[in-house]
Design brief:
Rossmann fold; single chain; binds nicotinamide-adenine-dinucleotide; alpha/beta; seven-stranded mixed sheet; globular; NAD; NAD binding; NAD(P)-bd_dom_sf
């Protein structure tokens, strides 16, 4: 059978560092295993347009492995061409690059390695919150420039203690963010999610659920987005919702770029309505060179904590998601049941409740 993997190019870094498993060079460590079973394993980073390897090989591949870090967008149109396709595996967490409704319709299963990088992302969220609230990036840039003007940084630096912090989405990542915030003695930890946390879990981190999104954002000094991208969350943080944010709030988004409206967020940051925006996800990946989120700043010249999409692809995370992909393949190839928490779309139906209320 043909197994197609669309991964990112690792270049010299991947040649020098074999633990960069999620790259074209290191192929999730699967080549020997798959070839020993007689399967054809095609790995490429070429994913855009009709002449790409992605579109060329999707027509007869039975399994597609993709990664959110370099997403091969499997649209409804491509599903029509993918006549052999039975299984899509996401090397990581977040399968919005696959048209999940089309997967349901075409009876193609979609699996993720659930939980594989949730600690990696939660740690990144904590770092991003701190670097925005404490005005870290301009402070470091000042040091590199050779300058030393403490007041220019301190005029917009605060403590996290005593602030209200909220998460949109309190699943694996959102909850881990709340857990990690507990020792910071925030004024309150809030969450907005259509799925309430179990009582004991909410109690353990002393979080309060706010059911109305406008009310939720209006109470938060810091908001982190930790929900999947689906029809109900695309453009969720838009001009209208931003009007309900506290003036000077901070927004962190490591979930998916398209959950936040690109221009509305940039305008809010540039006007000072948002004091900061940080995260690693972009509405198009790789982000174009002139993407406004690369350079937008608040009126005091700070507040930008954007990085490329890497929070969930630390070397620790790559080991976990590479092992997870292998185990999903082993189950598939030997007709064993899959771990239920990994199944996003089963044969002809959604198995998860996280990709929208249906
Ligand atoms: P999860 O399934 O454990 O939790 C998602 C939570 O979001 C669920 O509780 C769900 O009910 C909630 N949710 C869904 N729609 C919502 C909505 N409209 N409003 C509020 N809450 C909503 O998933 P997770 O493991 O916590 O991951 C969350 C997302 O983070 C992934 O889908 C992915 O997009 C993103 N992610 C990013 C990276 C990265 O490297 N930046 C890595 C892993 C995951």
């Amino acid at each position: 059978m043909k197994i197609l993997a669309i991964l990112y190019k690792g270049g010299d870094a991947a040649k020098a560092e074999s633990r960069l498993l999620g790259t074209v060079e290191n192929q999730l460590g699967l080549r020997e295993y798959l070839e020993s079973l007689g399967h054809e394993y095609v790995v490429s980073d070429s994913k855009e347009g009709p002449d790409s390897d992605f579109q060329k090989h999707i027509v007869d591949a039975e399994i597609l492995i993709t990664t959110p870090f370099h997403p091969g967008y499997l649209t409804a149109d491509l599903f029509e061409k993918a006549k052999n396709l039975k299984l899509c595996v996401t090397a990581g967490v977040g399968s919005d690059h696959i048209d999940l409704n089309a997967a349901v319709k075409n009876k193609v299963q979609v699996l993720e390695v659930s939980g594989s990088n949730v600690v990696s992302v939660a740690e990144h969220v904590l770092m991003s919150i701190l670097l925005l609230v404490r005005n870290f990036v301009p402070a470091h840039e000042m040091i590199e420039r050779g300058d030393w003007e403490v007041s220019q940084i301190a005029r917009n630096a605060f403590d996290l203690e005593g602030k209200v912090v909220g998460t949109i989405g309190a699943g694996r990542i959102g909850y881990r963010v709340l857990q990690r915030l507990v020792p910071f003695d925030c004024k309150e930890l809030l969450y907005y999610d259509y799925a309430p946390l179990p009582e004991a879990a909410a109690k353990a981190v002393k979080t309060r659920r706010v059911e109305d999104l406008n009310e939720f954002v209006s109470q938060c000094d810091v908001i982190a987005v930790n929900c999947p991208l689906h029809e109900g969350t695309r453009g969720l943080v838009n001009e209208e919702l931003l009007k309900h944010f506290k003036k000077g709030a901070y927004l962190v988004n490591t979930a998916r770029g398209a959950i936040c409206d690109k221009d509305a967020v940039a305008d809010a940051l540039q006007s000072g309505h948002l004091s900061g925006y940080a995260g690693d996800v972009w509405n198009v990946q790789p982000a174009p060179r002139d993407h406004i989120w690369r350079t937008a700043k608040n009126p005091l010249g700070g507040g930008n904590g954007m990085v490329p999409h890497y929070s969930g692809t630390t070397l620790d995370a790559q080991k976990r998601y590479a092992e997870g992909v292998k185990s999903i393949l082993e189950n598939y190839l030997t007709d064993k049941p899959q771990e239920p928490q990994n199944v996003i779309v089963g044969i002809g139906k959604y198995e998860t409740k996280a990709y929208g209320q249906r």
